Fold each of these.
Amino acid sequence: MMTMAEQDTALTDVLVVGAGFAGLYMLHRLRGLGFSATVLEAGDGVGGTWYWNRYPGARCDSESYYYSYSFDEALQQEWEWTERYPEQPEILRYLNHVADRFGLRRDIRFDRRVTDAVFDHDADTWVLHTDGGERYAARFLVTAVGCLSSANIPRIPGLETFGGGWFHTGRWPHEGVDFSGLRVGVVGTGSTGIQAIPVIAEHAGHLTVFQRTANYSIPARNGPMEPGFQREVKQNYDAIRRKQRASTNGHPFDVSERPALSVPEEERRAVYAAAWLRGGLRFRAAFADLLTDKDANDTAAEFIRNKIRETVLDPVTAERLLPRDHPFATKRPPIDTDYFETYNREDVTLVDVRESPIVEATSTGLRTSSAEYPLDCLVFATGFDALTGPLLDIDIRGAGGRALRDVWADGPRTYLGLQVAGFPNLFTITGPGSPSVLTNMPTAIEQHVDWIAECLNHLRSRGLTRIETTDAAAEAWGAHVNSAAHRTLLPMAESSWYLGANVPGKPRVFMPYAGGLAAYARHCDEVAAAGYVGFALTPAL
Ligand code: N01
């Protein structure tokens, strides 16, 4: 007699969790290969990150023409971006368009938050439950839960007594928040805070920014997408996409080959000045060694600090805004529109909570160790329990009932960021140990999805029903991820979420793979070409 799990397996080959960039493309690829697949999505619409992050000023830090799917030529030809950096509603429209264009919705179950996923060893099947009590089962499980989807909300004593409204930027109300005339507090000055602060300041009666770590930020220089540029992009998409895939970080721009200190100081400053004027993440590409040589990095960092000093009129505020505790770009560098300028407004106050930590929330505001700040509304731009958080929010249990939470108690261990030893038939798109968040995400996602799809096809064509990485492969990959990080300056940012440092109690492990997207993709291809080395493949029982 068939078990329940076996019956369900007959219905679905693959369950995918999440309907953002990753889940949508995974579903499309699986269908193309003739697999049956169902996507379970916690929200009531597609979009993932771009569904949840509706805070004021939410915008992408990669340029629109390449922060998009490359898998379908007609799609990239027909879609018209309106701005250099797309705003959240525009990206959400794009993803809704993709869902409609490829008829994806019929296989997506919305309003289903997956609570647990258990591997049934006898049936080679994953069994999932949702918060509504539904049960789903499939041979393979693919998580497409995003890297930055588990909100990090500071545990501030007394927050429950705060009389005003409070919001986390990653769970923004769909109807928006009216800040008119309100005394608003924003906690956090990462990419999100830096985008939201200037926009909130425009509307609030008074804005108080609670900063723990001063951040570097480069002007975005956003503007409308020029029709001529859009035409040119569309004529050259093949080359642009090739360049993205051949790059370190998924962006289609050239990184200078010159070390920063190989050019005279005046010329170096001119290079930075031009990069500052052009704006955007490309600033990092001004010299070859900004992420590998501290002395080189210091030149960029000091250039940016000087820009902050020039921009911010009050010298005490300017001094507080100067990033000094980490090299430039060792945390994901924000890009902004009028961020530092905002501190010149009479109705904006900067509070340094490293100097005077937040002690408690009261019914009327926030109290730090040195003062009380009356507030009507609090915004937490405090980021995410990155990479591992979205996976550990689900109670995932592999072979022998072992919980992923226990297996990762000292930090994540994966093979290629794609699989965890002891968790057969589970694939993690852009998991810890993959280049993911160090790259332009859609490019990284497409590479992962394509690899997983080909892998599943390989298994099916050979009558194999189980794939599982080995401890040895995960161990070796972990060491490689660690050494790749230490060939860069990235681990020097001690407060970085790349290290898990932003979440109290989280193990400090450098999570993303810093060896570059192209090298990573080559490695994944070699693994597949060699018959999936590092994985044990098993035929049907
Ligand atoms: O989160 P963050 P984010 N008390 O973790 C502070 C992507 N993204 O949402 O640095 C006081 O970077 C924290 O301080 P510290 C992008 O990859 C992309 O801004 O930990 N402060 C920090 O200042 C980005 O990197 C886009 O000391 C507290 C801030 O909150 C990633 O998302 C836009 C605190 C959190 O910064 C995350 O960015 C937005 C506490 N208890 C985001 N806890 C684009 O595409 C945390 N902080 C443009």
Note: Residues 149 and 295 are 35 Å apart (CA to CA).
Amino acid sequence: MYYLGIDLGGINIAAAVVDEAGKILGRYSRPTPKAPAVQVADEMARAARAAVEQAGLTLEQIASLGVGSPGAIDPTEGTVLYWCNLDFEHVPLGKLLEDRLRLPVYLENDANAAALGEYAAGAGKDSTSMVAITLGTGIGGGAVLNGKLYTGFNYAGMEVGHFVLEYHGRPCNCGRRGCFEAYCSATALIRQTRAAMEAHPDSLLWTAAGSLDAVEGRTAFAAQAQGDPAARSVVEEYQQYLACGIASLINIFQPEVFCVGGGVANAGETLLAPVRAMVAQEDYARNNPRQTRIVRAALGNDAGLIGAALLPVFR
Ligand code: BGC
């Protein structure tokens, strides 16, 4: 059996065909148009067809399409109810894609899909419970508890990007202030890196990035590796906020595995080793012999794709 998966991101639409074990057989990616939903659906259908072609298959050989989309999703209706980073409100994405591809479509929040991918075929494999976060354009979160995706009674649960770390803190795209996402998304890291560059014209951050416009999530880590003090304070502040958020989530769920994914997680142990030490100080269960393992996502950017594709398998 072959399954199509699409990970709809703020920047890219990534499509892949996977087998039952989550192995990717063909893939295709194209930029997400900053356009109305109908055009976004057109591009998604194009990416899906191209991935099928890459796999050397035809659409007739595909069982279904699973889509991970940011925002609040109603999987029963196949609707994106709300997504704050593209102008999506009550978008019938499932229907739009069914019309274009003539396949059954399963829709889920992108971070839930990524959590499912890691649970099925990555860092959470064989665990009883896992909480996963993705540090990207926003922060997504997902929880698989006792083998089942936990989404809340209305499917809008686990919006971990929008729990508040700082009351009245930095503004967030969702309309609140002080959200985890406003401190620990790649977007937030890039914003803080740019601010540090402006404050320190002699910082190695300038060499690492090239220009303000070219700053990426990895820029601060690259300049920190060269011993740059401005970069070090950007990274340390980022890690402190991240550890605070992770510790709070661990205190609530005490999952067997806590999985950190998304672009920023590519910094690997440089990011995670200090975060683990900080979390250990704040974990309420620190005296418990059984401790949550904080690990980097194993599937990288593919978690969302694989999880989306395997959605029907976990229903
Ligand atoms: C959205 C989430 C999404 C995350 C990652 C957040 O801003 O609220 O629904 O999972 O970004 O894309």
Note: The chain has a mean pLDDT of 95.
